[in-house]
Amino acid sequence: xxxxxxxxxxxxxxxxxxxxxxxxxxxxxxxxxxxxxxxxxxxxxxxxxxxxxxxxxxxxxxxxxxxxxxxxxxxxxxxxxxxxxxxxxxxxxxxxxxxxxxxxxxxxxxxxxxxxxxxxxxxxxxxxxxxxxxxxxxxxxxxxxxxxxxxxxxxxxxxxxxxxxxxxxxxxxxxxxxxxxxxxxxxxxxxxxxxxxxxxxxxxxxxxxxxxxxxxxxxxxxxxxxxxxxxxxxxxxxxxxxxxxxxxxxxxxxxxxxxxxxxxxxxxxxxxxxxxxxxxxxxxxxxxxxxxxxxxxxxxxxxxxxxxxxxxxxxxxxxxxxxxxxxxxxxxxxxxxxxxxxxxxxxxxxxxxxxxxxxxxxxxxxxxxxxxxxxxxxxxxxxxxxxxxxxxxxxxxxxxxxxxxxxxxxxxxxxxxxxxxxxxxxxxxxxxxxxxxxxxxxxxxxxxxxxxxxxxxxx
Length: 459
Known about the structure:
Layout: E1 11-12, H1 15-24, H2 26-37, E2 40-45, E3 48-53, H3 56-65, E4 70-71, H4 74-83, H5 92-102, H6 108-113, H7 115-127, H8 130-135, E5 138-140, H9 141-158, H10 166-184, H11 197-222, H12 230-236, H13 248-279, H14 281-295, H15 309-321, E6 328-332, E7 336-338, E8 341-343, E9 348-351, H16 353-356, H17 400-417, E10 418-422, E11 431-433, E12 437-439, E13 444-449, H18 453-458
Helix pairs in contact: 1-2, 4-10, 7-9, 7-17, 9-13, 10-11, 11-13, 13-15, 13-17, 14-17, 15-17
């Protein structure tokens, strides 16, 4: 192995030495490695080597050009304790089968049909803000966005109103994600049955989430018609070889995957959007002016979205600075070569949207919040994989179009009806890197009602 072209990078005698540094501030840790060592970094953890790739060409190579040489690897295996063998965690023929079954629910025509439900759910949630706005009370925008996106996913994909379960499910989800992230980022973890406080909390959270998910599944099984939504399609699907339908456990894993991934990431993206707009009120007012000029006081429709680019741009730029999925792990099947360096078989590879989205070669003044980077047509000036909040290649998030349409509609309707400001104008909200990049402690905000057009004209 003397001729191996190994990338530069630090080494630690044992994995535990680096684990302490990474756990203290993993975002700063990976950013510092990129600054010091460049676009390809080899992080030695005792006998383990992890390859960190930051250049868009390397990201493209792993996710798209040579994707058949990469699997999700052991870190994702630890996520299975939460979502099982769902579309996010499965591999090979089983993944391809599940993807094929789910794909029709995310065709463009089907997603377009969800717009009216998204608008109605958003209007109902925003109506709840009237009283807090009048009283000058604070809202946790992360909790509000989580409740809203959970309701949207429940109604559009599973035909179930989850608004009554949103609070309890949200608390359970926060615990489950925190524990799962701890397990994913630790070198050694205890079995989930070990009676530690963390594991007991996790098991309680899973029991809460399972109760919601199995109630959705069992309720649909009792219904006379399975329906034409995602759940109905999954329940009606039959294995081509055996003719068998999905087991109750298989359905649970897929429903859990879409329930969690389908609302958590969008809620996080929107929460960061409101935080950034509150810190850049001039951009918020520009986006609001566009919404009011197009919509006035009426609700948006799908046909309005091309005329509301700012409502999408403010979210896309928020996902650049605070990508909901901040790290993507892979493992090589066979050896590879990236950036002039050798990557051995079985190596762990990490792609970091957090770092690549700030790469100074592709993002001028990268720490600045500037939605104009996403003005339609501007993306032609940068590599495709300089921005990959939804991953890419064959494992591109199946719900990308769904999430972007939902976020754009929610952003437009919220800008139309309310002005959001930080409860503490001096507050700096820190990112908390669990499985998603949540705002630490939520985002405390006050909301001020925007007067309807008729009243604005009178005044």
